[in-house]
Batch of 2 targets.
Target 1
Amino acid sequence: MPGLYIHIPFCEKKCMYCDFFSTETFRQYDSFLSALHTEIYLRARLLADTPAFDSVFFGGGTPSLLGDVQLGGILEALHGRFDITQDAEITVECNPGTVDVDSLRGYRDAGVNRLSFGVQSFHSDDLLFLGRTHTVEEAEAGILMAQDAGIPNVNLDLMFSLPGQTPERWHYNLERARALGTTHLSCYSLTVEKDTPLERMVACGMVIMPPEESDAALFELTMQTLDAWGYCRYEVSNYALPGYECRHNLTYWRHGEYIGFGPSAYSTFHNRRWWNVRDVERYVEALVAGTLPEAGEEELTPETQRGEYIFLRLRSEGIDLAEFRRRFSTDLLADNRAFIDHCISDGLLYSDGNVLRLTPGGVLVCDEICVELR
Ligand code: SF4
């Protein structure tokens, strides 16, 4: 089933590595919310007869800067315009330090049943380096408050490959996450994105990033450790206890459809992709004028869909070869026989005859494999 995504573009302060669209200066939440409600209304009117949706994801930015009444109001608007299933997964991304047990209870009463905390590290000096606004104590308290508020399904974002990070320090982060009863973990390596303060710090030698081998070693440590603790890796960077896989993200990784709202949000629906302006003021202006704030669109050709399907499925559950034949009327195995055989003998891919999957070694070169598979 398709999902709904709402981008809340506000942050208390930009983190030095982040290239997501968010602003720390725009504070007119009321005008943003009113524009968002208009977008939901206009989009629903344009897309009459949409199917049922089984996930709603509030991402950002920092959605937890919104109170429960504001968030509940958005959910009410979505329920009023779209068919959202009774058991839909409803996730809110939170920054520790921006929530308390009462606001989380309010989220729960509004229908939220999953939280995702941007913790990144349980070491104070890491948080300082990354420019995060929360403390280790706030991160730990946030997770416990979520459980107290009746939302035990909690993801933590953690970051490895920080300069100078030892395997022991990274392992400690995983241990803390497990000890706190986390059901889901997203473990990403710190990457240097364009036009970020981190890029400038690396360029002038203020920060020295770890070498690729150390990134690969920490990735393998993550896989082995979490596997031993019963967390299943169901996408390159995502691990869940059985039954706690993120339904919304599975929709993305299964090349499913989704409709996004808010500045910079992307949508993929009925073989078309469109995206909104990356600017809160222009977003609000467009909607005040009664127009949708789209910045661009593209038709998803069969070739584009095929390439995206390979990329997304190989990174997650693997490519179901029969489904691939049905969807694209071509035989992936036959078309790429020599390359696939080569990857299998090199220990990068494996197949049970029905599904083609990456081995742990293949995960490290996933992008290179996807480029070759056509
Ligand atoms: S809180 Fe999240 S979205 Fe905001 S700047 Fe930091 S990493 Fe980016």
Target 2
Amino acid sequence: MAPHAHPSDLGTEHSAGHGGRGGRGRTAGPVVGIVGVGYMGIATGLAFAHRGRSVVAYDIDRGVRAALRKGRSPYREPGLAELLGRESRRDRFHIVDSLSELARRAECIFLCVSTPPGPGGRVDLRPIRSASRALGAALREVRGFRTVVVKSTVVPGTTDEVIAPILRRTSGRSARTLGVAVNPEFLSEGRMVRDATHPARIVLGASGARAARAVRRAYAGFSAPIVALSPTEAELVKHGSNAFLALKVSYANELSRWTERLGGDVDRVAEAVGADPRIGPEFLRAGPGFGGSCFDKDLRAFRRRAQELGLGSRIADAALGINDDQTRHAVELVQRAGGPLRGREVAVLGLAFKAGTDDVRESRAFPIVEALLAAGARVRVHDPSALANFRREWARRSPRQSARLRFVRTAEAAVTGADLAVLQTDWPEYLRWPSAWSRRMRRPRLVDLRRRVPAPVARRAGLEVFALGRGASGPTPAPRGRRRRA
Ligand SMILES: NC(=O)c1ccc[n+]([C@@H]2O[C@H](COP(=O)([O-])OP(=O)(O)OC[C@H]3O[C@@H](n4cnc5c(N)ncnc54)[C@H](O)[C@@H]3O)[C@@H](O)[C@H]2O)c1
């Protein structure tokens, strides 16, 4: 856990806590501030609390603050509610109602606000600009050195060119009393608690030695190596990593077309490719295309920034292009499996962009459901965690298409009377596929976009499976007693 801070360190708050390691109130190191308590901000804040920091967090959204104050997480992720409960009980994670209070109490302040997609592929910097302005104004009122750390994802050059100047202007502080740093976050949703508490590396681009020291002390107790870079290099590492990972997904997706066309299983091929330590197995998973709040937005922003610099990014072009093709391909697979879709009942299982999260941002479920409706199908959708988020986002995106879409509360209700089911997110409950589900379908057919329903389970349930990335898009394996369809 956290080593003790040096008493000489500026503003270090030692609690008067007694008792053993990790006991109530026992904290060490600089007080950490979190501005923006979304998916990334909550995981980051709780990870610092877990490592012994006292954390104060502020979000502009009153509802988020109210939920957190009651100890309720606004986001669903494995381990998140438990960690929030534990760190709140230990008195290490506090919600505050103003940036003034946060600026007064916290010495190392992490900007974790949204950087949503904006027009022309650029990121919309309005939230982070406005948070920086408000934080700068709050910093005017407090004494002592402060470090502001940009943890939100921004394109290379943004901190030096945009955020640091705003902070300096609005706070009236020079480098003598205000340090600025970049510390990108690499967590993956669905496993964000583990990723945030156990990062593989901590990338730190600080504008000066004092800021670097403050961030290092905030990270005391984390076992990851700290990689010290310039702020712009740190921003480039984040975008470079995302582009590479997205390309790996797209690469596996491209391979999936080969195995479908020539016969074979993309997972077996990808596993053998990934066994080469120069490549590695992670993210070589073919599916309906990547979703989530980061890859698409960050790749577009990276490409846009590359264009502005006269560089261009063929990597971003390729990853994005293959991704669009793959989602179209997934829809074609559904159409091939289901025949003419007009009037057919189709169940889409899984709406989150991946299993383990309730996040639906850029989920492939949106284009897939839209395409099914456009082909005349009647669609029912289910997700054990993300149904409410999907419904809200759907109403915003496609209000006129809602009549033929039903939101159902159980997977069994979704498949009852369906001509075809589509597995979009590989939640564990779908992978067990009880025989009763097949019996309730008009015709027990599944398009498995993730290849995750095990063959023996499908066989036992008499389920005909069309798997993305397998065979010649034919049903694999042939269910007993059923004719193999071309
Ligand atoms: N979600 C991820 O998996 C992930 C991973 C790595 C990096 N990131 C990056 O982290 C940043 C945040 O992403 P997220 O997924 O947590 O977004 P999010 O939308 O879940 O959360 C952002 C939060 O910031 C708050 N906010 C906006 N403006 C604010 C302001 N002026 N003052 C205070 N709070 C404000 C919002 O109310 C919201 O709760 C983005 O830059 C994203 O690219 C996200």
